[in-house]
Amino acid sequence: MDVDENMGADNGDVFMHRIKELTAEEKQQLESQNSRIIPASKATKLEREAQKHWDLFYKRNETKFFKDRHWTTREFQELINFDPEQQLVFLELGCGVGNMVFPLVEEGFSNFYFYACDFSPRAIEFVKSNPLYDENKMKAFRADLTTDDLFENVEEGSVDLASLIFVLSAISPSAWAHVASVAFRVLKPGGMLLFRDYGRYDMAQLRFKPGHKIAENYYMRQDGTRTYYFSEEQLEQLFFKAGFEIIKNTYVQRRTINFREGLDIPRIFVQGKYKKSANG
Fold it and tell me: In this structure, what is the dihedral angle of CA atoms 169, 170, 172, 176, given to the nearest 10 degrees?
């Protein structure tokens, strides 16, 4: 499993448009992954059983694996740059156990109405059992972003801000265009999609051993969940084709430090802000 993107202390984010230059050793690490590729039949089975693997992940880890994302208001000023009297609708696409929604609730975002959806029914159970869950101010529900399930609970064109944080990487590349389209359709004209996910040549990508690679930059973890490592060009093209205006789209380099565990881990993410034009 990837080391959590919010583990321990860090010395800040560095934004840059240049892809990481690999050392000879790192190139060899990536090349060695090709010695044993996951067969197409197994890759198809992983896709078919994706929900089962994520349900088992949450059964095993409950709410303990990912730390609450208290960094989002720092990185995404759109969450705080508004008239405090303005009523806003926020949608967390792929909410997990609520690691983004509940920190916002704790910070007093009382003028927000929160929607939160996830692929895993067990994750939604954890969201609803959180003491901060208030049915008057939020609605959590199960939805598959590769279909139109979302619109059974949220009207098209009704959301001011949506987030897609460390979610797209877990979805089959063949479904990305549909996910981007769903995000575009649910936003109001002028609405914004906030994005962050794993970047190309992140430390976690380089660590995969032979037998875990599904396709280029796409891997199976030990627990059967999958992850992809993006380039900024891929994401810019994906969301532009979906109709978004690209406000920000860049690599983020971060050193995540955990003194207690003696870890100093270089991470690479891609962060984006994609806007639906005021004309819709």
Answer: -50
In the block, residue with structure tokens 């590769």: 146
Give the separation between CA 107 and CA 102, rounded to whole angstroms: 9
Q: What is the DSSP letter of 185?
A: H
Q: Please enumerate in sequence order all residues whose Cβ is within 8 A of that of 268, keeping only pairs 6 or more positions apart, or say none.
A: 20, 198, 199, 200, 201, 202, 203, 251, 252, 253, 254
**Could you tell me which of 137, 143, 186 has the C-alpha nearest to residue 161?**
186
Residue found under tokens 């004309």: 279
Mean pLDDT for the stretch of residues 222-242: 93
Q: Output the pLDDT for position 82.
A: 75
Is residue 30 within 8 Å of residue 229, measured between CB atoms? no
Contact (Cβ atoms closer than 8 angstroms) between residue 119 and residue 144: yes
pLDDT in tens, 196-216: 999 999 999 999 999 999 999
- Alpha helical stretches, state H, the chain: 24-32, 40-48, 50-61, 72-75, 101-106, 121-129, 176-186, 203-206, 232-241
| Sheet order of strands, 138-142 included | 9-16, 245-258, 263-275, 187-198, 159-165, 88-93, 112-118, 138-142
Which strands make up the sheet holding 218-220, listed edge to edge? Answer: 213-215, 218-220, 226-228
Say what the pLDDT of residue 63 is: 47
